[in-house]
Design brief:
The protein is an alpha+beta fold. The chain folds into two domains: 2-57, no CATH class; 67-140, 2-Layer Sandwich (Arylsulfatase, C-terminal domain). It has helices spanning 32-41, 54-57, 124-140; strands at 2-3, 26-27, 67-72, 85-90, 93-98, 104-108.
Length: 153
């Protein structure tokens, strides 16, 4: 399983899960709790961050087309590499908008998992598409203006 930042997850449960490798689905750390709850107790929780990916583990579907959003309000550059940012990941692409500088960065994670090559100048259409998704999500989620990094000019 590939998490949004390229982490691996391993699950072994012989009676419930058949051995397989799935590398295309977009899974976040916040998905682990609802997944374990569903697998262990057959319960689903609504209205929380994260989504159970039990069906992905069981090989019933994949999440490669999943779009995910997140806000990192606290910078932890030394421990996790995080900066204060708002981001969207859709398919192979990730758009980052920094809260303090309003700078935009676009990455193709399939080709550049380390996020070394900012494609915002080379792929403006993709950047604008993801920026629209990000701004729509911020509006839908009522992101407070003090956390909003504004619209790209």
């Amino acid at each position: 399983m590939r998490e949004a930042f390229g982490h691996l997850f391993f699950f072994k449960w012989d009676r419930e899960l058949k051995p397989h490798i799935e590398q295309e689905s977009i899974v976040l750390g916040m998905d682990v709790f609802p997944t374990l709850l569903e697998l262990a107790l057959n319960k689903k929780i609504k209205n929380i961050d994260g989504k159970s990916y039990a069906s992905v583990l069981k090989g019933k579907n994949t999440w490669e087309d999943r779009t995910v959003f997140w806000i990192s309000r606290k910078a932890r550059p030394h421990s996790t590499g995080d900066s204060k940012m708002i981001a969207v990941r859709s398919g192979d692409y990730k758009l980052v908008q920094y809260i303090e500088t309003k700078q935009l960065e676009l990455y193709n994670l399939k080709e550049d998992i380390s996020e070394e090559f900012n494609l915002s100048d080379k792929e403006p259409e993709k950047m604008n598409q993801l920026l629209k998704q990000l701004n729509d999500w911020k509006e839908e989620m009522l992101v407070p203006k003090r956390l909003d990094v504004g619209k790209n000019k």
